[in-house]
TrEMBL record:
It comes from Buttiauxella warmboldiae. Keywords: DNA-binding, Transcription, Transcription regulation. The keyword Membrane does not apply. SUPFAM superfamilies: GntR ligand-binding domain-like, Winged helix' DNA-binding domain. GO terms for molecular function: DNA binding; DNA-binding transcription factor activity. SMART domains: FCD, HTH_GNTR. The keyword Cell division does not apply. CDD domains: WHTH_GntR (cd07377). Residues 14-84 form the HTH gntR-type domain. This is FadR family transcriptional regulator. PROSITE patterns: HTH_GNTR.
Length: 241
């Protein structure tokens, strides 16, 4: 699944255990990793996320201490997402530790990646690429849960990055999604935001289909700027509680 490819993507260099805890906590709290879902084993996690077994074990111990996962011993055992993880969301909400400056910077980085991907895609997308993207947006439009909406959104953004035919841009989008997706899942609890995002995607596709480079870039910027606006708005609402 593309969601898992993002969640378990390689980790950066600094504070690796903390990064793993933050990424998996966000994925669990926002429902991208579902209740009772089994995580990959320690060896597979270490390989997938590019860290040592000790780092993985340390992160899993922290997640267990936070009651986000539990471990079952035996032949069919492993680490599983706790059923009550959603109840802990007020204390472990991603907006608790993220600043508005961080969210603004994340949005600017994402805007840069998607805007340039769109610029190249407007020149290089085939009719098949356009049809595929329309299909992804149709899935997003019909999705009813925050999790399925987020997964559909991820496919749309990764499809745009892939259509740029730049492996570096597509890889950067994949890496950024590990931070972006768990935050967007919170936004997609709102039907109003969901409808607004679908409308923005529809406009973007129309400009891409017309191979209108400047309008495509403008539409892409508006899409990511809208996401960023709502992320910061949610952070401010969280602070006001």
């Amino acid at each position: 699944m593309i969601t898992h490819a993002v969640i378990f993507a390689p980790i950066g260099q600094a504070s690796r255990s903390d990064q793993i805890v933050q990424r998996l906590s966000n994925a669990i709290i926002t429902g991208l990793l579902e209740a009772n879902e089994q995580l990959p084993n320690e060896a597979d996690l270490a390989k997938m996320m590019g860290v040592s077994h000790i780092t993985i074990r340390e992160a899993l111990n922290t997640l267990r201490a936070n009651h986000l996962i539990h471990t079952v011993r035996g032949r069919n055992g492993g680490s599983f997402v706790c059923e009550q993880a959603w109840e802990l969301s007020p204390t472990l909400n991603p907006f608790k530790t993220l600043s508005t400056d961080y969210l603004s910077d994340l949005g600017e980085m994402h805007c840069a990646i998607i805007s340039h991907s769109t610029r190249l895609a407007s020149r290089r997308m085939t009719q098949g690429d356009i049809t595929r993207l329309r299909d992804f947006v149709a899935v997003l439009n019909s999705a009813t849960s925050p999790e399925t909406r987020t997964q559909a959104d991820m496919r749309c953004l990764l499809a745009i990055a892939a259509a740029s035919q730049s492996a570096r841009l597509a890889n950067q989008e994949l890496i950024l999604q590990s931070e972006w997706s768990s935050l967007v899942a919170i936004l997609f609890r709102s039907d109003i935001i969901h409808r607004e995002i679908v409308a923005l995607y529809t406009t973007l596709i129309d400009t891409l289909a017309a191979h209108n480079e400047s309008e495509s870039v403008n539409s892409a910027q508006k899409l990511i700027d809208t996401f960023t606006f709502y992320l910061i708005e949610n952070k401010l609402k969280y602070n006001a509680k």
